């Protein structure tokens, strides 16, 4: 689960099966009581129909927790972390960062850092499209040391400068309005 809609789907499936839950968070469900094997199978079937799946091995669960922590941090948190990502994840998940990094790379085929930066750039794109903040404010909100640092990283990931990306968005909107 990586979004609010996913949480809603999971809650609906749990309620449909009469399963009590204390909490449904991104990537995690806290059930109250025991779940019968047939309920577990029905839940898995219902989730698969919605494009979701149950995870039962510890490595996959830990990788999902890493993904969820990064996604929550980048997309749903108002304040970006002011500490190293490695310290943040180690503290949040209670594992050595080297172990987390190796496991994530092994399972996902991408480093934690690259995954984090990819999500940061996607969030920057979103903020540019919203057009509520200027680049300095976006750089500050996303914890970049400067607008130049943000611009360089943005260009490295997208091939465009933030200004050019914004112009394309504006140009595209004008074209649609004129059609």
| Low-pLDDT residue spans | 173-179
| First-to-last CA distance | 38 Å
> Strand pairing plus helix content: what structural class?
mainly alpha
The Cα radius of gyration reads: 20 Å
The overall strand count is 2
Average pLDDT number = 86
Q: Under the CATH scheme, which architecture of the domain at 116-178 would be assigned?
A: Orthogonal Bundle
**What is the 3D form?**
globular
Any idea of the CATH class of the domain at 116-178? Mainly Alpha
Overall helicity: 55-70%
Strand order of the largest sheet: 1-2
Largest sheet composition: 2 strands, antiparallel
Assign the CATH superfamily of the domain at 116-178: Homeodomain-like
Number of helices: 9
Q: How is the topology of this model organized?
A:
Layout: H1 4-16, E1 21-25, E2 28-31, H2 37-49, H3 58-76, H4 85-93, H5 97-108, H6 112-130, H7 135-141, H8 147-158, H9 162-178
Antiparallel strand pairs: 1-2
Helix pairs in contact: 3-5, 3-6
Defining key terms:
two-stranded antiparallel ribbon; disordered C terminus; 9 helices; mainly alpha; Arc Repressor Mutant, subunit A; 179 residues; 68% helix; single chain
Describe the structure.
The protein has helices spanning 4-16, 37-49, 58-76, 85-93, 97-108, 112-130, 135-141, 147-158, 162-178; strands spanning 21-25, 28-31. A two-stranded antiparallel sheet has the order 1-2. The chain has 179 residues and is mainly alpha-helical. The chain starts with a helix and ends with a helix. Helix content is 68%, strand content 5%. Among the domains are: 1-54, no CATH class; 116-178, Homeodomain-like (Arc Repressor Mutant, subunit A, Orthogonal Bundle). Residues 173-179 have low confidence and may be disordered. The radius of gyration is 20 Å and the shape is globular.
